[in-house]
Amino acid sequence: MSVxxxxxGKLGEAEARRRLEQxxxxxxxxxxxxxxxELDLVAQHGERLVFIEVRARSAASGGxxxxxxxxxxxxxxxxxxSLAQAYMAATNQRDAAIRFDVITLTIGLDGxxxxxSHYEAAF
Length: 123
Prior knowledge:
This protein has helices spanning 3-22, 74-90; strands at 26-34, 37-45, 48-58, 97-107, 113-119. With 123 residues, it is of the alpha+beta class. It has a 5-stranded mixed sheet with strand order 1-2-3-4-5, with helices on both faces. It starts with a helix and ends with a strand.
């Protein structure tokens, strides 16, 4: 992953986390890793454990690689579900009510957030 993509991802995750906390989400984990991959954000929202996939795109890309939301394809959804099961087992939360959300952001070259969308129960 290029430095610019890493920077874009970190900016997106930080902004998503900031907004989620403002909305009353309690962040449990950031970039939780297992041998199967990584969960971007895990949060508690009311009685639900929420697994959040964050996707950031540069405004400069002009959508030529598709939208950020489109990048959360079936394969990615399957991976996030598997990671969620591993997280729940590792944190002894096997019986928790869960939800899978997607947050998409468009970030300008100067680092400003140009668009932000939060899709609850996205998959």
